[in-house]
């Protein structure tokens, strides 16, 4: 029974301030959609693949070297990129696929075409520099990077749903916070607890509409009474 009463009280609290919940939820959902469609900058990822026949120790060394600024400086100069080798290092990764001899070089960029060009250039530079540095001639390009036009960081539906959920939670939280800070005595039982005395009566809420209606009723009653007295 107590649980039913508590649930009814909770629903009543929400119903009394339902407009706050709707406003906050719609606001957050709209902001989430705005952020997803107009603010989030798309990022594109693609990769090139090579076959590198080397032992495990040398392979690990090669994977580290691919992301080194000293190696990437060759890529930056060859492509005349408007970025530093250090910045490019944050957008490029390399690794052996399933422990095999196939090495994948992945690149992320705001332009799909640039990402593919960097991945292919990095593969060619890697092949050339490794042959020069380690005299490793057993490196071949397995597949070139293709232009991938699907962004990896944009999912409008997920972001909008997430914004909706956050708005719903924020709206509910605000409603209960306002209710917690509201010291209005709403029930007779609460008044009796606070005053430690029985409630003998209550005064109805007065507003301009109620006052006007009461005034009109009194005027009509007075006219009716005056009319009856005149007839007599």
From TrEMBL:
Biased composition (Basic and acidic residues): 216-232
Highest taxon in the source lineage: Bacteria
Localization annotation: Cell membrane
Keywords: Cell membrane, Membrane, Transmembrane, Transmembrane helix
Cellular component per GO, a single term: plasma membrane
Topological category with respect to the lipid bilayer: Multi-pass membrane protein
Similarity remark: Belongs to the CpsC/CapA family.
Protein name, entry field: Polysaccharide chain length determinant N-terminal domain-containing protein
Species whose genome carries this gene: Neobacillus notoginsengisoli
Organism ancestry: Bacteria, Bacillati, Bacillota, Bacilli, Bacillales
